[in-house]
Every structure is written in C-alpha cells, then in structure tokens.
Amino acid sequence: MADPVVATYSIAACDLEAGQWGVAVQSKFLAVGSVVPWAEPGVGAIATQAYANPRYGPDGLALLRDGLSASEVVERLTAADDGRAERQLGVVDRNGDSASWTGPKCNDWAGHSTGPGFAAQGNILVGEETVAALSATFEANAHLPLMQRLIECLAAAQAAGGDRRGQQSASLLVMQRDGGYAGLSDILVDLRVDDHEHPIEELRRIYGLHRRLFDVTPHEDWLPLAGELRTEVDERLGRLGYDTLDAWAGVENLEERVDGEDAIDPVVLEALREAGS
Predict the structure, then answer these.
(1) Domains recognised in the chain with CATH numbers
(2) CA dihedral 14, 15, 21, 26 (to 10 degrees)
(3) Which pLDDT score, from 0 to 100, does residue 1 have?
(4) pLDDT band with cut points at 50, 70 and 90 for residue 128
C-alpha cells in the first residue's frame, strides 16, 4: 500500500450563486495538493485523503457528471474499494448537497462533518475541534468569496489544534466555468504550498499575490489617466525604462489589469508606485 496522506484536514465546498466548487487542504505530507483536491465547475468537488485513493477524484467526478448525488458517489466509491476502511472522502455535488466517509481504521482522531455546501474531514488530528472549526468557519463566512472563505477555514482549523503531527503543505483549488486566466480556463485558482514550516500562512500570502494579479476592479473605479496623474505615470514608466504602461504591465504580469491608456486600475497604479519608489 502507498504511503498515506497523513495528518490531513480538508474541506470540499461550493458557492452556488458564484458557480464555484473547490477544496482547501492542509497536511503533514509533501505536496498534498497533488493528491487530495479535485473539482469541476457545475459538477462538484471531492477531497480524498488518509490512505488516499487518488482514483476517488476522477472516478467521483465522472459519477457526479452522470448525475449521482454526493451521498450516492460516496457509497459507490467506497463500496467498490477493498481499502475503504482506511480512507477518508468528502464530496459536494452540483446542488450543494454533501457527504463524507471516514473509514473505521483511519488513525485517531478522525472524523467528518457535513452541511449545505460543504464537507469537512480530518484524520490524525489533535481532536474533533479541528473539523468543527472547518464547519463553523465556513458557515459563518458566507459573505466572503469562496477562495478566501476556504483559507479562513484552514486557518481556524489550525488554530483549533490542527494536525497531531504538525504542518507541511497546503493547497487551494477553486473552479468556475470560464473563470480562469483570460476567461479561457475553468481554473479560478490553483495554489499549492508543497513544503513549508507554516503552509497556511504562505498560502494566504500567495493568494494575496493572486488577487493582485487577477482580480477585477470595476471600470467605474478606474482612475482617468489625465493631467497630473498622466504626468506621474509617464515619469514613473520613464524612470523604469518603459515607453508604455502596457509594456511595463506585461513584465510585471499585470497585463490582465490594463485596458488601453485612457484610465488606470488603482491596483496597477499602486504597483507602479511601489516599483518606482
């Protein structure tokens, strides 16, 4: 049997209004994001862990795609798996219904909690408080975007005790139809911290970078590039060695936040000022 994805807690979840499905996970395991999280927009989200069966991911999504509910998927996958006693599984379907499985041979403390739009589970934890924190934090933060909401869940779970064996890696995967890069990908966010002393803190940091590069500021909040601001921007670009805002933004990976020369996204302006200070 393969090495287990040990000391893991995760939450599979969705935001039906936003059309997003995703998984957040933290583990005392190298590169946990390569094994545990699976999601597909309009289909569902799956977390597979403990002595993880990676086939639960693609096979479970296929079942969800065929219209099976979360509970039916959990039943179908575990019934066909001789190793189910050592597995954990969490599933959220297209309707936001959820189901989890914790095999009786998973190492203590192991358990799960489900509710509308989420399935939370963990094994080799300090105690049940970790999974309770995942659930309570998800339910209390419906006002947040799903990506941020899931990071808050991980942080609260760690503060409640977390993994008995410590921390090593964390991951955040959220899918939305055409919600990814340039509107040509379903991957809204796929961030992984593969080996770090404080992986959740590092995940939060790189999520901040992701927001800076790829979030969208409504055009009505952009600033007219005229008068003193136009002069300032041109001077800063000149000192940095660029003729146009578009050329500089391309180097800084901010091209998705630039649209012509008549107005500037405040986030781009802030980055330009930081670069030229």
Answers:
(1) 8-214 (3.60.20.10), 219-275 (no CATH)
(2) -60
(3) 43
(4) very high
